[in-house]
Design a protein that fits this description.
Arc Repressor Mutant, subunit A, seven-stranded mixed sheet
Length: 466
Amino acid sequence: MITILLDHISFGTGRKYRQIMNGIRAALSSGALKPGDRLPPQRELANALGVTMGTVTRAYREIDKLGLVKGEIGRGTFVVGRETEEFALHALHNRIPRNTSDPIRFDLNFPVPEGTPDFAAMLAELSYLPAVKDMSGYQPTAGILRHRRAACKWLERLNLQAAPEHVAITAGAQHALFTALSSQMASGDALAVDGYTYPGILNLAGVLHLRLVPVEGDAEGMVPEALEKAARRHHLRGVYLIPTMHNPTTVTMNPDRRRELAAAINRSDLFLIEDDVYGGMEPETMIPISAAIPERSFYLTSLSKTLSPGLRLGFLVVPNGQFSAVERVMAASIWMNPPLTAEIGSRWIENGTADRAVIIKRESAEKRMAILSGKLAACDLRFRPGGLHAWLKLPPPWTGETFARQALSMGVQVVPSANFSTKGQQPVEGVRICIGPPKNEAETARGAGILATILAKPVIHDMPFM
């Protein structure tokens, strides 16, 4: 058990007891600690970490206040639940569809409802086309050629030129991410990530038994020099980056940082996985990092954040020499992407529906984000005008978990920063706020007003976990 905690606890700046807490939370979030597990005796953990027993005692006491562990006299301290279970990505995704009594949801990251293309009309149109009958059989694993050509057209609007033979059609960006990782990495390999990153990569790392190495960042994203240092120290295989509208911090890298990272990746002999699912929501599209180092880059995007999450259509651009490896992984996972889904997305790209929808959705997102940022103007809120999520940094003594629990008790659901933290790296207490799920602008304003009201009052430490 001490080994598990040592793998998740790392000391940086800040109070050591809080960093021990963050490590325990990270172990709970990853599943390394499970309900019923017994934490190490305080003195043993203190000796292993090289801190005072008082530091460990305080960490245990504070984690007990959160309702995650329970001390039993004469027996020790036991895990009673995972702190982030209520807010974990899979738990939020699998909630029963909401009704009028449900909270205002700022949790899941998907596009605003305005401007969504008409699925019913498209399905009616397809029903009259003879070519649809051909899609009832097996198709090439990486997708039909004309679907891959349509994908290339979409990639052009994201400032990336790609040939159809280098593009694989996937069942959404998460499947593209799984495919890229599985084709390049083996159990135990190390991947560089941001200290706070997309929960889907954290989940995949657990499933594929990969080592995630958090790398220092600044206001422009991951620091190139820090990446090169980590590559030497941890024998990295690759790096995962979200250069545009980073999830959750909202950072969009400037062109200089992108070029510097491309050079650092090249010098360190790494491969890049570039996640650009939000690229279409920026009014001025940036040039992807992958454009500078295509021979090292797996570039992925999808229509989930721009058109509809239910479409489940992703595009993976594969470097030279790697397509066979990608096809093997795809064949092992889903055999082929459903061609009917790809047909719908391709037609919307080709006839301009997708472009028109993005314009409407971006304008609507800007209105909602303006409402949110206006209500929280006195707070440390990071956002992009057309983005789908904002990053609220909390003032002390708030933690992401106490704030999320109090918000939920008042009818608003947000996601605490622990869900995005890599290996206990949590110098910031905060929550992610997504503006896509609310029903309309009025509900967005009401939910944002509740969050502002909470921050105007003292923190409540002893609220029951809901």
